[in-house]
Amino acid sequence: MQENQNNNNAALRCGYVTLIGRPNVGKSTLMNHLIGQKIAITSHKPQTTRGQILTVYTDERGQIVFLDTPGIHESKNKLGEYMVKVATKTMEEVDLILWLVEPSTFIGQGEHMIIDQLRECGKQVILVINKIDTVDAADLQTFIDAYKKEMDYADIVTVSALKSENLDDLMQIIFDRLPYGDPFYDDEVLTNQSEREIVAEIIREKALRLLTDEVPHGIAVTVETMKTRKAAAPAKKKKSKHVHPPKKSANATSGPISVSNADGTPDLDAMLAALAGGAEDAANVDAADNIMDIEASIICERDSHKGIVIGKSGSMLKKIGSQAREDIEKMVGCRVNLQLFVKVRRDWRNDSLQMKNFGYNNPK
């Protein structure tokens, strides 16, 4: 029995594959489409991914462990240094590297920095020219030729991650380049991220998509509590000769959102203004359903940023909470009561201790 199993595994291709590239080239979008499920958050803003995200794809050919990484860029603070270190360190630990670039003949300083690192690590590199849906097909060979002049590749593939073009070809090329061996994870494993980590990233994604350009780079999200409970059965009403519409509760469609000052004390005015988005009215939920209560904090660097995150009369925070709750409910499979807090931690991106508290631990 064991001998047959080993013979079967001898035909499997299994290995670690990292996706690298400059910010905003589509690494997370590509990884999500390759595994067929959204794990990494995406936005049109650069530096969306801040840490290494592991996902697992398994089929009859074998197993690919994808490692999505932050975009390689010129860092301006300790968080930026951490992100670049994560990306470069990952290159040393994998069997295969996917280098994502945009379709262009211009190869600038950022690309040359990556090329130097690729040559130094000595790993197999597949050049992936992404976003081909944005250019004429007749121009693709020109882009390929431009990159061919820079270094040798194990293969070159042109894809559109957003439109899922040529992704099957890319997957087969990856499998063909991986070593034979046993899978690293069970078939049902999709990611090593915890629910808390995914919830925090979902909230940060909504903030990235909704906020202005200057704020998102300076925010972090932490999840303080996640608890599941049974929904309370709605109370039976006494019969009345006169029927009146039920009074609408102030929190009928939204949970309390608390806001703190820089010293951690409650900002009562902002708290009242920000009562918005996220919570479910338990009375409207079937008693058999579960409700997950989540408390999370959006961390920003300045008091002025706190006001932007909250928005006029709590409008922005309501949007962030409402959109995040929808995605979280799909993930956990039950109703969600999401309470968002906004806190100021000045210049946290240059504070190693605070970065560690927010989950950004320097890779060894």
Distance between the termini: 41 Å
Oligomer: single chain
Gyration radius (Cα, Å) is 24 Å
H/E series, N to C?
Answer: HEHEEHEHEHEHHEEHEHHEH
The count of DSSP E runs of length 2 or more, i.e. the number of strands, is 10
- Helical residues, percent: 25-40%
Structural category: alpha/beta
Which strands sit side by side, in order, in the main sheet?
Answer: 2-3-1-4-5-6
Low-confidence stretches: 1-7, 240-288
The shape, in one word, is globular
Strand content: 15-25%
Total helical elements? 11
Q: What is the overall pLDDT average?
A: 78
Major sheet description: 6 strands, mixed
Explain what the structure shows:
- With 364 residues, this protein is an alpha/beta fold.
- The protein is built from eleven helices and ten strands.
- It has helices at 2-9, 27-35, 78-91, 109-121, 140-148, 167-177, 195-210, 268-273, 303-310, 315-332, 352-357; strands at residues 13-21, 53-59, 62-68, 96-101, 124-129, 155-158, 220-230, 258-259, 290-300, 335-344.
- The strands form two sheets. Strands 2-3-1-4-5-6 form a six-stranded mixed β-sheet, with helices on both faces. A four-stranded mixed β-sheet has the order 7-9-10-8.
- Helix 4 links the parallel strand 4 and strand 5 (124-129).
- Helix 7 packs antiparallel against helix 10.
- The longest helix is centred in the C-terminal third of the chain and has 18 residues, at 315-332.
- Residues 1-7 and 240-288 have low confidence and may be disordered.
